[in-house]
């Protein structure tokens, strides 16, 4: 291994738990279906292809418990098939409609080809179980899957340590259930860290986590190698820090790759463009025009939507290859410079949301594939590596205390704690206090009482999802996020009161179990800390 | 049916223009849980979010003692800087007051300096400056927001979290009530762990707790580990 440095590419795949059996058709479930179609299946296809061709690569991916739950849920699997088959139907009509139109025919054919491939993967290869495909790639050693807090809970904003502990414990158990072993690493939700979080990770045997750059750079004492080597917290858990140079090349709204005018424009969609009677069967039941997933225009530049130019798939794919080459070149220069400066092989940790690749940046999976091919064939300076491999090869690292931080806007907790969402915390904290009390007071519950306690825990977990606070801040799906928060807290409170009165409405309980079915094997005792919860006075 | 892909519908979508089926944002949550509590949450190097709940009964003892003077009182968050202080010193730590309305239940406190440790009390301040504390918060430590001045690097080798945790148990659970053979073995294990920690300067304070009968290969002032 004579490389100059190493590259750890980390993709965080997450969606909030959205499942509404009470509706035949539910808009927000599309988030999952779009991500499966445009990100998860293409990434699996890419990795499988690279393995078949014996191309050496390494990828680290977090698959969060809510995402794993949704991907393995029979109702959502069935609804995904319905979504996919409808989209394939539309794309077949589109191929026919655009046959004589050279500006759009290539795009239409591309969609039909890709969607048909998705169906082949999903139905024929994976039989609806794409988690097994990820597991297999991990077992083959090319992919390292890490976990995340149980419902992507924002750990530093939980007033009770036991609530944060319960997020980690259930995550580790859920991971074991899906992937057959304990998780070695974790993606803290939003990379939100404060002192003490690492102790909770150590309790569950988790070896490492990730920090935004300043979380590591501002550690005490000062990290000798900046973000280019991990540090150990005093608990022995390693913290890897994000490289901002490689992040900027992709994430930057102005200069990042995804903003290139030749890439596909996300906001120009056939759901808005095509004749209403033609497109209506492919919209939701309410008939409102929305994104359907087929898009025919490229970004073009800073122009109005109606001035966008037709998308050229071949041009975009070539561009993705160019950008992959550019990314690799920049990493080569970076590791050469850093190796000379640090007198140590630098580790570049490049962290992104998985859904950027394919969903927001349509050509993203092509970029990744080209990057891995080029890293394998065209150079020897950089070796792709996983965090576990790095720690196995480099067990000696600096001891330091990371700084409170997150990868949210402004680097701390403001996105999740501001005027739009700060009202939730008193309620979440109270519910956590009550849950801990109930767990302590009911060490041996059985039957209906146990079911009620387990369901109360589920409602609390679902209320704690940091997605709701995030959506309230960014302004998309605000009412949905508010309703989810309130609904789960109300259900929790209802169960709490019934448990206190020892009078549980079994019909209500069954309905909650049917709807909010995350973590089917959940044991409420995970909230027990063996003492009465201290009220926050 | 549209025959060309170039038709543009009259409606041009915005990024935020995804119409949700929900106009219902859920039933309101309670204004109070009947508690008396004051919770503070660190948000960034200079901001703490505070929320509190206080019941009318909490004021009764004050009403009896201070009577109509309470009508002149203002609600105040008293923000203490307890950085580096032992708990018994917290009450006399430096502080500043933020006036908050009687009806307020939350506030964003701005701190003059980052990286400090704080505790807050909510109470009533009388015109003569007397502070009647009614609620006491938890403690938070704010981030520094810049690179550390501490450059005394320490290094450890961790081959697995289980191995590290096993060492940690030995480090913290030396059982002096056991026989000398057990004790010696534990101390040998403890030294094994401690030898893996190097510092450029002063050894860790646990070194000073070593009994006199120690192995002769005791680490000296530390070897720089590169």
**Largest sheet report of chain B:** 4 strands, antiparallel
Mean pLDDT value of chain A: 96
- Helices and strands of chain B, in order, run as EEHEEEEEEHHE
Number of strands of chain A: 10
Radius of gyration of chain A: 24 Å
Low-confidence stretches of chain B: 1-17, 173-179, 198-226
The dominant shape of chain A is: globular
End-to-end gap of chain A: 57 Å
Q: What is the terminal-to-terminal distance of chain B?
A: 72 Å
Report the total helices of chain B.
3
Largest sheet of chain A: 6 strands, parallel
Portion in beta strands of chain A: 5-15%
CATH superfamily of the domain at 37-141 in chain B: Immunoglobulins
Class based on secondary structure composition and strand pairing of chain B? alpha+beta
Radius of gyration over C-alpha positions of chain B, nearest whole angstrom: 29 Å
Considering DSSP H and I runs of 4 or more, what fraction of the residues of chain A is helical? Answer: 40-55%
Characterise the protein shown here:
The complex is a heterodimer of chains A (537) and B (226). Chain A is of the alpha/beta class. In chain A, 49% of the residues lie in helices and 9% in strands. In chain A, the strands form two sheets. In chain A, strands 1, 2, 3, 4, 8 and 9 form a six-stranded parallel sheet that branches. Chain A has a four-stranded mixed sheet with strand order 5-7-6-10. In chain A, helix 15 packs parallel to helix 18 and helix 17 (466-474) packs antiparallel against helix 18 (478-501). Chain B has 226 residues and is of the alpha+beta class. Among the domains of chain B are: 37-141, Immunoglobulins (Immunoglobulin-like, Sandwich); 161-206, no CATH class. Chain B has helices at residues 60-66, 161-172, 180-195; strands at 37-44, 47-53, 74-81, 95-99, 106-110, 117-125, 131-141, 154-157, 198-199. In chain B, helix 2 (161-172) crosses helix 3. In chain B, 18% of the residues are buried. Mean pLDDT of chain B is 74; it is low at 1-17, 173-179 and 198-226. At the A-B interface, helix 4, helix 11, strand 10, helix 15 and helix 18 of A face strand 1, strand 2, strand 7, strand 8 and helix 2 of B. Strand 10 of chain A pairs antiparallel with strand 8 (154-157) of chain B, so a sheet runs across the interface.
């Amino acid at each position: 291994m004579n490389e100059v440095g190493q590259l750890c590419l980390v993709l965080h795949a997450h969606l909030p738990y959205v499942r509404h059996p009470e509706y035949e058709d539910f808009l927000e479930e599309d988030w999952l279906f779009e991500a499966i179609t445009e990100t998860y299946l293409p990434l699996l296809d890419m990795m499988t292809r690279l393995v078949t061709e014996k191309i050496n690569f390494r990828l680290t991916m977090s698959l969060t418990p809510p995402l794993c739950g949704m991907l393995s849920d029979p109702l959502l699997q069935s609804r995904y098939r319905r979504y996919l088959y409808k989209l394939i139907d539309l794309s077949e009509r589109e191929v026919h409609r655009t046959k004589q139109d050279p500006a759009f025919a290539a795009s239409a054919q591309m969609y039909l080809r890709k969607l048909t491939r998705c169906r082949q993967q999903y139905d024929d290869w994976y039989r609806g179980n794409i988690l097994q495909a990820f597991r297999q790639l991990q077992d083959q050693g090319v992919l390292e899957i890490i976990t995340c807090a149980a419902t992507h809970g924002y750990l530093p904003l939980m007033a009770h340590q036991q609530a944060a502990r319960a997020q980690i414990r259930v995550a580790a158990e859920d991971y074991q259930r899906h992937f057959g072993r304990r998780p070695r690493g974790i993606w803290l939700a939003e990379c939100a860290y404060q002192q003490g979080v690492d102790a909770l990770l150590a309790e569950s045997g988790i070896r490492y986590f990730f920090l935004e750059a300043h979380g590591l750079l501002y550690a005490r004492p000062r990290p000798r190698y900046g973000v280019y080597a991990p540090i150990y917290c005093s608990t022995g858990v390693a913290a890897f820090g994000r490289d901002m140079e490689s992040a900027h090349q992709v994430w930057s709204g102005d200069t990042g790759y995804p903003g290139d005018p030749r890439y596909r424009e996300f906001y120009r969609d056939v759901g808005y463009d095509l004749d209403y009677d033609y497109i209506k069967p492919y919209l939701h039941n309410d008939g409102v025009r929305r994104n359907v997933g087929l898009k025919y225009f490229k970004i073009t530049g800073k122009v109005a939507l109606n001035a966008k130019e037709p998308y050229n798939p071949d041009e975009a794919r070539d561009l993705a290859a160019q950008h992959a080459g550019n990314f690799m070149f920049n990493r080569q220069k970076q590791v050469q410079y850093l190796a000379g400066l640090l007198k140590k092989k630098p580790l570049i940790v490049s962290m992104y949301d998985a859904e950027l690749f394919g969903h927001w940046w349509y050509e993203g999976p092509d970029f990744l594939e080209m990057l891995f091919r080029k890293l394998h064939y065209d150079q020897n300076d950089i070796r792709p590596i996983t965090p576990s491999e790095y720690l196995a090869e480099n067990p000696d690292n600096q001891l330091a205390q990371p700084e409170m931080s997150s990868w949210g806007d402004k680097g701390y907790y403001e996105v999740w704690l501001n005027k739009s969402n700060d009202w939730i915390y008193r309620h979440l904290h109270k519910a956590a206090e009550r849950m801990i009390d109930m767990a302590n007071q009911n060490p041996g519950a059985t039957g209906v009482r146990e079911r009620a306690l387990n369901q109360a825990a589920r409602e609390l977990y679902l209320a704690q999802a940091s997605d709701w606070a995030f959506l309230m801040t960014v302004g998309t799906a605000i009412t949905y996020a508010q309703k989810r928060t309130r609904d789960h807290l109300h259900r929790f409170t209802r169960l709490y009161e019934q448990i206190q009165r020892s009078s549980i409405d079994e019909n209500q309980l069954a309905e909650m179990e049917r709807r909010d079915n995350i973590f089917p094997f959940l044991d409420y005792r995970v909230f027990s800390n063996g003492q009465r919860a201290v009220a926050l006075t | 049916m549209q025959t060309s892909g170039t038709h543009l519908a009259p409606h041009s979508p915005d990024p935020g223009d995804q119409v949700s089926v929900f106009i219902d944002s859920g039933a309101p949550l309670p204004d109070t849980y009947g508690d008396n509590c004051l919770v503070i949450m660190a948000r960034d190097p200079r901001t703490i979010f505070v929320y509190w709940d206080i019941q009318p009964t909490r004021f009764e003892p004050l009403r009896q003692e201070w009577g109509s003077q309470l009508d002149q009182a203002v609600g105040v968050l008293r923000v203490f800087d307890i950085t580096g202080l032992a708990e018994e010193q917290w009450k006399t730590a430096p502080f500043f007051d933020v006036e908050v309305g009687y009806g307020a239940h939350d506030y964003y406190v701005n701190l003059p300096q980052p990286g400090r440790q704080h505790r807050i009390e909510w109470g009533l301040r009388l015109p003569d400056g007397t502070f009647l504390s009614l609620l006491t918060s938890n403690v938070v430590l704010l981030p520094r927001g810049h690179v550390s001045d501490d450059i005394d690097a320490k290094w450890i080798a961790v081959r697995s979290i289980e191995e590290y945790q096993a060492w940690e148990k030995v480090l913290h659970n030396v059982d002096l009530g056991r026989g000398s053979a057990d004790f010696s073995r534990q101390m040998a294990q403890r030294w094994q762990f401690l030898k893996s920690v190097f510092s450029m300067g002063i050894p860790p304070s646990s070194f000073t707790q070593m009994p006199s009968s120690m192995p002769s290969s005791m680490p000296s002032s530390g070897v720089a580990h590169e």
